[in-house]
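Lab meeting, item 3. Inverse folding demo.
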């Protein structure tokens, strides 16, 4: 991430866990800032969905990570 303006943030809005406790989902907003061609910061904001799976050792792993961007 050599871009001096690079920044990435996530804000979860909703998290749900399956009845069995082995799957979960997260829905929220994210913002990513990068430099434009002139070196000025530009920020893209969008939504995301992540599906999590509980592993045998008890840790969680992202099974699907889906950004939803729109072009103005």
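The presenter then showed the designed sequence:
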């Amino acid at each position: 991430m050599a871009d001096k303006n690079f920044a990435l943030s996530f804000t979860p809005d909703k998290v749900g866990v399956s009845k069995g406790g082995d799957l979960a989902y997260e829905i929220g907003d994210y913002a990513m800032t990068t430099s434009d061609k002139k070196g000025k910061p530009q920020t893209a904001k969008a939504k995301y969905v992540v599906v999590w799976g509980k592993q045998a050792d008890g840790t969680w792993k992202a099974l699907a990570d889906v950004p939803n961007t729109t072009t103005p």
